[in-house]
Amino acid sequence: MKILYFHQYFCTPQGSGGIRSYAFARRWVAAGHDVTVISSSGFDDSLVPGRAYDVEGIKVRVIGGVYKPTMGFAQRLYSYLAYALHSAWIALCARKYDVVLATSTPLTIAIPALIAKIFAKCPVVFEVRDVWPDAAVDAGVLKKGFLYHCARWLEMTVYRKSDHIVALSDGMLDRIVSKGVKKNKVTMFPNCSDTALFKPQQFDRPALRNQFGVKEETVLLYVGAINTANDMPFLSKCLTALKDDSSVKWWFVGGGNQLKFLEEEVRTHKIENVTFWGKRPKADIPKFVNAADVGIVSFINQPVYYENSPNKFFDYIAGGLPPVFTRTTWLKPYLEKVNADLICEQNTVGEFVSIINKLKPDAAYRSEVGACVLELANHEFSRDRISAQYIDLLEKTASGR
Predict the structure, then answer these.
(1) Do domains 2-190+382-399 and 195-379 have the same CATH topology?
(2) Average pLDDT in the 364-368 region?
(3) Which band of pLDDT confidence, cut at 50, 70 and 90, is reported for residue 304?
(4) Architecture of the 2-190+382-399 domain
(5) Domain boundaries defined on the chain
(6) What percentage of the chain reaches a pLDDT higher than 90?
(7) Which among 122, 83, 121, 85 is positioned nearest to 101, based on CA atoms?
(8) 43-79: pLDDT as tens digits
């Protein structure tokens, strides 16, 4: 089967972004399928605009347009439209493919998807990683004006025209269905855990921690985007609340539009138990995960972010790292099932500190929770299992051409 895959932020393990598309595509190639990815320059500096690459058998074409998470609104919009217009020409030739897979965000990825469907008559699967424009409105990035109504029209049009829709959480699926989409048209494939990549047994943990300069401290790890949606003001309050506790150390691995804010908060409040590691290649993240003691997942307390399917969570549990959520999450039933529901239900600093104080002195308890979430990663969120289910869906969609 020939698959045309539109993903503006495609990233390999050499980049600092999520590798969902790469991880799926390389498995599909290994299973005998032909995958062509259309990307732009974003989170992976090894992918240069205007060039084509063979990435483990995946044909990756990097077209014009550059995206950086630190861009302002106008710059982001220009980047989104530049990619959509460049990829539109490729979509016109999509007839030679068996199926098109377009993954958002941004929502403008719907433009080449619609062109492939309407003009090239190619079956389309549209993947929703965040429900836009809802998520953008809740994050305060988009106001309810002209652009909002354009985005809403584009969203509903791609839902209507797509042959199938993939959502990354139960909540996203329900939200999409609430907009008038038939439930049998939507399938939930969450983000996944690559347990082979994060396997703790491949590391000498004491040597790894010594390399990072920590000994007995309890390391709280935050990996990924440090953006408005990740509620850095809340984490800043948590940092301040724990700043006098020398047995706790914070690590932040990543970048984004709120990194400077967080760094300034650390300076202002004279918080010394924090290290900012900057953006790191995905290939380095297993070392941080296996050297840390607790993984932090943080999002603003808005309904749409209850539905979020955060890469960092699936990476944490793939390495057997206990995850702590700063707000409620659709993942709670899964975590309750394995007695690992470390969740700030009311989104308060007091709850967060209480959870950390419970985890901090008890290495045996942390180890127990870690073993439970690793089991969850292996059975509920295995990349291999979900990848196989996904390719089955693509084949069924293609067969209906």
Answers:
(1) yes
(2) 95
(3) confident
(4) 3-Layer(aba) Sandwich (3.40)
(5) 2-190+382-399, 195-379
(6) 70
(7) 122
(8) 788 888 889 999 999 999 998 777 776 677 777 777 8
Can you give the pLDDT at residue 364?
94
Q: If residue 253 lies in a helix (H) or strand (E), which one and from where to where?
A: strand 248-253
pTM listed for this prediction: 0.90
For residue 333, cis peptide bond before it (omega within 30 degrees of 0): no
Pull the structure tokens for residue 229: 């949606």
Mean pLDDT of 384-388: 95
**Sign of the CA dihedral running 188, 163, 20, 311:** negative
CA 192/CA 314 separation, integer angstroms: 6
CATH class of the region 195-379: alpha beta
Q: Residue 95 phi/psi, 5° resolution?
A: -60, -30
**Token pair listed for 395:** 């084949």
Q: Which amino acid is at 70?
A: T
The whole-number pLDDT of residue 69 equals: 67
Looking at residue 391, its amino acid is I
59 - beta bridge partners?
36, 54
Residue 161: partners with Cβ closer than 8 Å, 6 or more residues away: 113, 114, 117, 118, 124
> Exposed, middle or buried by CB within 10 Å (0-12, 13-18, 19+), for 182?
exposed
